[in-house]
Design a protein that fits this description.
With 365 residues, this protein is α/β, with parallel strands linked by helices. The chain has two domains: 167 residues, Rossmann fold (3-Layer(aba) Sandwich), CATH 3.40.50.1970; 181 residues, Dehydroquinate synthase-like, alpha domain. The chain binds NADP nicotinamide-adenine-dinucleotide phosphate and fe (iii) ion (FE).
Length: 365
């Protein structure tokens, strides 16, 4: 058997109303929590549930609800300052990938000082404040990964930072918080989860166990992909959230590959949602894998129960009208993407010419 290691120290708690019914789990985190979130968590019920659970335990909380999509270093610094002023000793993150990632960075920078120039330099020690995460989108799987992805203005991209201590201690999964997630967010985040499972299997760092998690994720997620453009039942929301977590557990081991590495430019320069950016590039990346006879492709399609053509049609139907990005810009993104470390993690490492062709094909250029 291929030698591998598996590390995922997050306690996952799934089920309807689990934040309330298993709220005593928060006790072990600390006495005063900084709740890191965006504006939507007050409306979707997650913030109320967390505040009620903490209060029942006799824990106090300070709410930092100023995280916006694609969190910046400035946002993280604001969170660290509020945490210190409030005397918080633990963090509860509520939201999509943006609040969850901001929370991981706050938890880390609160105990490891870095200048702005050093933030993306890597080499973090395995120290962070204890965290619980409550995802309110089904896509990033950030609740079970050791990564945070922040906007890196110096390099005009998004860059991930990692440390084993960025794994949350607890993750609470309840699809009820997604009952009113807008259709576009549901589609885009599902595409992100799909991309994680697929890219995990296309990674040089894939292991038998990360592949098993990815296959199960695709098996559940793929039949639901088309449905994300319409009404979803709460059971289907739960299933999407579970599949997203499995895909997160996959990339926690394998990392992401070319598609994510290429998608960051679309988000940074054109504000395209992270999941949609991946969805736009995925079809071309899969077609390249077919051309290069990448062995994992057959396994991916078997888990989806569809042909390559069928998968590409499904993704295209969800994407709808494509953005109008000039050819010269896309060619520039290809040069940039070659500097991204994720490209080198791909089982088949695409050449610059192939990366350019994927960008151009994604926008019909
Ligand atoms: P997001 O940026 O967290 O949220 C997108 C929008 O959805 C926000 O406007 C948010 O509103 C709203 N929203 C969230 N939950 C909602 C709900 N239940 N009901 C209604 N509206 C809701 O989007 P995301 O796609 O989940 O996260 C993307 C980020 O995650 C990117 O920065 C990406 O790079 C990162 N990511 C991280 C990992 C990882 O392993 N760490 C993996 C993949 C992606 P409010 O802001 O007002 O609350
Ligand atoms: Fe992602």
């Amino acid at each position: 058997m291929q030698p591998f290691t598996y590390y995922m120290p997050t306690k996952v708690i799934c089920g309807r109303d689990c934040v309330l019914s298993q709220g005593e789990c928060f006790k072990a985190l600390g006495t005063h929590a900084l709740i890191v979130t965006g504006k939507s968590s007050a409306a979707n019920g997650a913030l109320g549930d967390v505040l009620a659970a903490l209060a029942k335990n006799g824990q106090t909380a300070t709410v930092f609800d100023r995280v916006t999509p694609n969190p910046t270093v400035a946002c993280v610094r604001e969170g660290v300052a509020l945490l210190a002023a409030a005397g918080a000793d633990c963090i509860v993150a509520i939201g999509g990938g943006s609040p969850m990632d901001a929370a991981k960075a706050i938890a880390t920078l609160a105990v490891q000082e870095r200048t702005d120039d050093e933030i993306f330099a890597g080499g973090y020690e395995a120290r962070a404040l204890p965290m619980a995460h409550v995802p309110t989108t089904a896509g990033t799987g950030s609740e079970v990964t050791p990564y945070t992805i922040l906007t890196n203005d110096a390099k005009e991209t998004k860059t991930s930072i990692t440390s084993p201590a960025m794994f949350p201690r607890l993750a609470f999964l309840d699809g009820k918080y997604m009952a009113h997630l807008p259709v576009a967010s549901t589609v885009n985040t599902a595409l992100d989860a799909f991309s994680h499972a697929v890219e995990g299997m296309l990674s040089r760092n894939a292991t038998p166990l990360s592949d098993a998690l990815a296959r199960e994720s695709l098996h559940i997620l793929y039949p639901l992909l088309r449905k994300t453009a319409g009404e979803l039942t709460l059971d289907e929301r739960d299933a999407l959230l579970y599949a997203s977590m499995l895909a997160g557990m996959t990339i926690a081991q394998s990392g992401t590959t070319a598609v994510h590495g290429m998608g960051y430019a679309l988000t940074y320069f054109y504000g395209i949602d992270h999941g949609r950016a991946n969805g736009l590039l995925l079809g071309g990346a899969l077609r390249l894998c077919e051309k290069k006879k990448v062995p994992a492709l057959a396994d991916i399609l078997a888990a989806c129960g569809d042909t390559l053509e069928g998968v590409c049609v499904t993704i295209d139907a969800l994407l709808g009208k494509k953005e109008d990005i000039p050819r010269a810009r896309l060619e520039e993104f290809a040069v940039r993407a070659m500097g991204n470390k994720n490209i080198k993690k791909s089982a088949y490492e695409p050449t610059e010419e192939e990366v350019r062709a994927i960008y151009l094909g994604a926008f019909g250029r």
